[in-house]
Amino acid sequence: MNEDGIQARIERERNKLHVLTKKYNGQFGHPRVIHQSMILDELINQYYQLHRRNIKKPIA
Fold it and tell me: CATH code at 34?
């Protein structure tokens, strides 16, 4: 998956997290909220790894 694809997915999953948080009255410890947060964390980590590979390193 490319950076644009991951960014779009991050946004969708972030919105899902927001909806779940509202649904469970801000209970960040609710199992479904935690699960969605873990999904979002994994995508953010994937984006970071992909982004790091695409940054050009200095020659010197």
Answer: 4.10.280
* Angle formed by the axes of helices 31-54 and 3-23, nearest 10°: 160
Q: How many domains does the chain have?
A: 1
Predicted model pTM: 0.82
Query: CB neighbours (10 Å) of residue 4?
Result: 8
How confident is the model at residue 3, as a pLDDT? 82
Q: What DSSP line would sit under 9-45, residue for residue? A: HHHHHHHHHHHHHHHTTT-TTSHHHHHHHHHHHHHHH
Domain range spanning residue 51?
A: 3-56
pLDDT per residue as tens digits for the range 9-59: 999 999 999 999 999 999 999 999 999 999 999 999 999 998 888 776 666
